[in-house]
Structures are given as C-alpha cells and as structure tokens.
Amino acid sequence: MQNKRMLPYRVLDLCDRKGIFCGRILGDLGCDVIKVEKPGGDPNLNLGLFDHDSLESEKSLLGLAYNANKRSITLAIEKTEGKEIFKRLVQKADVVLESFPPGTMAGLGLSYEELSKVNPSLVMTSITPFGQSGPYRDFKAADLTLWCLGGMAYVSGDPDRAPVQVSSPQSYLHGAAAAAAATLIALYYRELTGETQWIDVSIQEAVVHTLMNVVQFWDVSGIVLKRSGAFRTGLSTAANQRLIWRCKDGYVNFPIYATAGGAQSNAKLVRWVESEGIRDEYLSSIQWEEFDLSTASQEQFDRVEGSIGRFFKSHTMDELYQGAIERGIMLYPVYGAKEIREDPQLMARGFWSNVDFPELGEVTFFPGSPFIFSGERQDIHRAPLIGEHNEDIYRGVLGISKEEFVTLKEAGVI
Amino acid sequence: MAGNALTGVKVADLTWSVAGPLTVKFLADHGAEVIHVESSTRPELLRVLPPFRDKKPGLNRSAYNACFNNNKYGLSLDMNHPRAKEVLQRLIHWADVVTENFSPGVMGKWGLSYEDLVRIKPEMIMFSTSQMGQTGPRAKVAAYGTQLVSLAGFTNLTGWPDRDPSGPYGPYTDATLPHVGVAAIMTALIHRRRTGKGTHIDISQFETALNFISPILLDFAVNHRVATRKGNRCSDSVPHGVYRCRGEDRWCAIAIFSDEEWGRLCQVMGRPELATVPRFASFQQRRENEDEIDRLISEWTAERAAEEVMCRLQEAGIAAGVAQTGKDLLENDPELAHRHFFRELEHKEIGRHHYEAPPFRLSKTPCELLTPGPCMGEHNETVCKKILGFSDKEYNDLMADRVLR
What we know:
The structure holds two protein chains of two kinds. By secondary structure, chain A is an alpha/beta fold. Chain A has helices at about 20-30, 55-65, 80-90, 105, 110-120, 145-150, 170-195, 205-210, 215-220, 260-275, 280-285, 300-315, 315-325, 335-340, 345-350, 390-395, 400-410, and strands spanning about 10-15, 30-35, 70-75, 95-100, 125-130, 200, 230, 240, 245, 250-255, 330-335, 355, 360-365, 370-375, 375. Chain A has two domains: about 10-210 and about 350-410, 3-Layer(aba) Sandwich (Rossmann fold); about 225-340, formyl-coa transferase, domain 3 (2-Layer Sandwich), CATH 3.30.1540.10. Helix content of chain A is about 40%, strand content about 15%. Chain A is elongated, with a radius of gyration of 26 Å. The relative contact order of chain A is 0.13. In chain B, helix 1 (about 20-30) links the parallel strand 1 and strand 2 (about 35-40). Chain B has 18 helices and twelve strands. Chain B folds into two domains: about 10-210 and about 340-400, Crotonobetainyl-coa:carnitine coa-transferase, domain 1 (Rossmann fold); about 240-330, formyl-coa transferase, domain 3 (2-Layer Sandwich). In chain B, the strands form three sheets. A six-stranded parallel beta sheet of chain B has the order 3-2-1-4-5-6, with helices on both faces. Chains A and B meet through helix 1, helix 2, helix 6, helix 7 and strand 6 of A and helix 6, helix 7, helix 8, strand 6 and helix 9 of B.
C-alpha cells in the first residue's frame, strides 16, 4: 500500500457485502485494511471466478470495486487454531469490522469483551441490518427489504406501480459508509482519552437518513409523501411538477425552481425557447420572481410544461446540457455509464484510475477515491486475490515460522 | 454542547441545504461545538421549503431545515456587510474546522479561502464540498442534488424498463455525502492531532455519488455493458420484488436467494406443490418464469396486510420488509422505537417534533440530541459574547449596524 497515510491504523475486515464499503473507505484514507476471508474466499465475492458474460458477474464487480485498497488473508476463524491466530492479529490491530448476524461473534468467543481482553485499545464496529438489539434484530434482510423498511422505496418510482429500488443496490453502502464515519469518531476519541468502544450500526437507520424531509412531512404537516415518477413531489402540495423530460435522444432533468436562483434559471430557459421561434404568450408573460412554486396550480404547471416539453424534444441531451451550462440554466442530462465515463469534469479532476489486475489486465476508468486532501486524491490499489497477503501478514506481521505456516495451511486454517 | 466523543471540537459551519448541514449534524450529535453561520440577507433554501408546521410557511417553521441542524448554535450574519469580517476573524480564531458548500470561489470573495484561513490559523481544517468539486471546467455550474441525481446515473437506474425513468426520491446524491464527509473531517482531525498539520478537504458530491454505483461503472469499463433500470429485479435473487398487499398502497418486499428459501416461501403461501413444479425448480427456471411467479406471490399477498406478510415470512427465515411510509417509520416501526431513533425536541416555532439519531451508537459515548435546529439568529448574543468574546457594547454595535440581524 502506498496510499498517502492520513491514518496510521490497522483494520481487520471480516465483513461480507453488507459492510464491504466500510473497509474500502478506511483503506482510501490510508489505513492498512486486512480482509480476513474464509479459506477459498467469500463465495459471493470471488474475484477468481470473474466472468465477463456471467449473470453473476455483478458479485465479482462488487468485490472488484469495494475491496480495492485492502489486503487479503485467509483464516478459518471458526476453528480453534483459527481463533487463536485471529486473536494474535487483533493484538496488532486497531479496529475489527464485522457484519455477521447479531450474536455470531460472541458465539465464536470473539465478542467485543473477549477481544478487548486481548487488546484493550481495540475499537470494534458491527454492521447489521437492524442493529444489535430490538424486535427485528434477527430478521433476515436483503438490500431491497432494507430499502423498503428504511422508507426509500415507498417514495421512489411510478405512482401506479410498486415502490422501486435503485437497480444497483444502495442500502448496504449507506450502512457501511455510516460505519466508517462512526469508526473514525471512536478512533479520534481514543486518541484523546485512550478509551475504546463498540459501535452498533443499523443499515435500516442509514436508509432512513436518505429520506430528506419524508418523515418530517408526516410529523409536522400530517402528509404521507408518495412516489410520483418523473414528477417531483415534496416541494409543493398543490401540483406535480415535471422533473424528467424526454429529449431527442434520451432524457433531461429540469425543475421549475423556486428562490432567486431558480427564477433566473427558469427565465433563461424561456428566453432560449423564444429565441428558437417557439411562441407561447402564457410562458413569456410569467414573472418568475413572483411565481410561487408552493401554491401554483396544476393548470399553471401544465401550461408551462407544454412548450418547454416541445422544445426539449427537438434537442439532444448534449445540446441541452451544453446550452444550459452556457446560459446558466439548472438542467442536467440523464446519464448512463457511457456518458459518465466521457464527462469532461471527471476527466479534468483525475477521477478515474488505471488499475492493473492479474487476470483481467488493465482496467481503465476505475472509479476513483472521493477523498482529496490538500489537492491530492487518494490512490486506488486493486482488490487483492484471496489470501494474496497470507505470507506477508502471517510471517511478516505475526512472525509465524515457515514450518508453522505450512502446518496451518495443511490443517485448512489458512 | 453535549459531553461526549467530540467534546472540544469546534466547527464554524457555513454549509446550507442538505449534504453539508447533515454532515456537521453528525459531529454535533457527538458533542462537537458547532456554530451554524447563516446569511441573514439570503435565507438558505431549506428555510423556505416545506414541510412547515401546520403547512404555514415561515423562515423558522420548516422542519426540513430544522432536522439537519439540531445541537448547533445559530448565528445570522450579513456576509456582505463591511464589518462581517470582524465577526468572521474571531470565528476563525475559535474554530478547528471550517465547513462550507458554496459554489467554488464564493468563500474567497468573503476572504475565507483556504489560503486566507491558514494565514490566520496555519493548522486550520477546511471542509469544502460542492456538486462538482473545487477544480475543473464545470466546478461552478449551478444546480441542486435534485438534478445531480440524473448526471450521476441514479435516475436512469431507477424505475421500470418499459417506462420513462423516475429516479429515487429527492436530491438523493446529497444522501451519499454525509458519512463520507464525516470520515474525511475525522481523518483530518486525527491527522492534525498526530502531525500538527491542517488540510483542505475537497469532496465532490458527483464523485462521492459515483462511488455508490461503482459496480455499474465497472460493468461498463470491463464488459462494455450499460446498465439500466430493471424495476425490482436482481441478478442474484429470484423472486425479488415488492408485492401489493391488502389496503391502500401497501406493499411488502420479498427476496429469495436459494432453492430452500423458495420451498419455504411456497409452504408459507400454502402452495407447497409449487416448490416441486419443474419450471420453478432451479434458479434459472425461476428466472425464466419470473413474471408468473410474481403473479402467484401477488395473489397471496393481496389478501394480507403488509405487516402480516413480513412477519409470516420472517418466521420462516425469509427476507421480507414492508415498504414503509414516513408515518410508518415514525409511528409503527417497533425496531426504530426500541432503538430510540427518533428524538422529540421542543422548537420555538415548530413546537415538539422529531429529530433523527445517527445510524450508529457508540457504546461509551452515544449521541445526544439536546437542542432543536435554531431559529434564524437565535444564538447571536450567546455566540458573540460567550464564545467569541465580544463585549456588551461591541455586540450592541454589531446589532445596531445590522451586521447581525
């Protein structure tokens, strides 16, 4: 790891996909994150099985993405020798991350209390669907069920159909990012006081934190917000306002917005529409500074949207985005992966990394770290192969002899 | 304000809208002392957006604004007043961290660029987050998270394959930022404690959001596939959907990952024979007949309450979850109630209403939600006299000159 070492900590990462992003964030920040895998690896995140055309390849892609900036060892922590070795690793570590069902670590004799005896300065972070206590503690979960129980699904999608997910699972990522934040708060406190603690993360609660004002709408106004498809809800109670519009070759996102900044954006768009010969007296007559978004009627919105909709349909996404940037209009195109990859802003900021993989070869356009400290972006080092660092860590860090290393391998512990 | 993990950390919080204030709220929830500086001449967006108490607008009536600013002091400052810098100077001397999410260049106009700050305080930590980041040709393009959702791929990835995209609710990219932001600020604080050095953090909301769809971006980089919305389908689970239940707009999600789980689902539905029907027997066969399976499940769920569907499936060890509304979360979720996730605080104009605890509990230094989101300028006097050390006369002058208002 050559990443700029903002943080000097060693992290043992026992997480499955629920917590996989947590270690990645800590790795980005310079921690030495050691992924502790079952001998043979996590069957759900097996880089060795990477297959370009497999239906299952998203699993591998998940590992490819979120195991970057980690090292990997294999260890059967459920075996007696495995537990002993894990405890020796804990002595050399600052943090243990885990995402087993509540009670699993205690069942293995590896509870926070037990591990604290081995290393009194250890911080442990547990990431679970609902947290360590409460009536849903032992509920089974999937990313989708947490998206639903956290409230995000209900307000996403078309009103006449079922609530929907984002078609790239999000719930676990929010829980894992929260876990990284919490772990660092605890490490800061440890720096100050020497005190350590156990962190209990709820993925469901992390999803609730994506809801913006949904709970508050019920709490202070008695309104249950519903999903509204391509329209926008949550800002006005009088009408639906179109947010997603068809254009010539795709879609664009343009809201008729409130506040001084929004009024300017609306007015600039109307001038652009007029300049192309579309005549609409109603549209041209609107004083945007006085247009009250929260009370405008559905009829007003429908009339505004007619001409604007026709204008958008006569242009491509690129024409509209370019024109919007030049004129200061708040419009963004609806991008897919291809357009994102070509985005000049990301290129200019050096967002993408080139990462070399032993089996895949070089992957250009690997999504970069979001962290930039004093102008320097944190690097990406490729996800490790399963057990790639066994020798470095068992022999180098723990000082296990060559003979013992071979014995442990033969016993299936490593 | 609270006495816990971050007691003694001082933050001058110049952020507004969602992502910035929520980032800093998580610090305030753990005891950081935060002064939220607002422009009195241009009230921030969320103060004029609903929900307002009893639907009656007012600068101090939006719960949207309040819920991201609990545990903070509120200071209202006319940033463009010639004397504003007298207050800002003291604020910078006081602060460990300055947080802001203006369009790049705005802080510089007020004499608050990172270079300006380190001239006053060399070890300053500055947290700058904006849609596009501090550099690059589009750094200053103005838009809100509601639009960035589309640029960052989420709109296209949310909805039904046979329809226009819809996107997740609200300015969703704002929700990808706060924990990453807290991680960056804590890292800078730890780094400074160990090295004495400050840092300027530059986090682009666009780039952070893209880290939440990395597998999709890699699918294009490696396999040249452009992923798009697929309703509630999932590549490693079938059936995998959100099913209509009894009542108005009630739904429950179900996700099946193995043959055993499929068999248990058929049992619970009272249709054990389906488990042995050849066209549903394997993952691949269920995938090929997924529409039919979805219909069969819907027939069963439609006659039952969503909560009953969830509980009966959970008893059989199957992942299921009600699509909860804002009301459900606040009033009907026994797990959130058990964990004391919502905390009621008394706000001067909104009255008693609920604030959310962070999604994590530290065993020794748990969060404490103590004071509601401040009214505009609510703590001007306390901040100026008790924290920044202005005398009574100086404070009265600042008020008379309308530097604070």
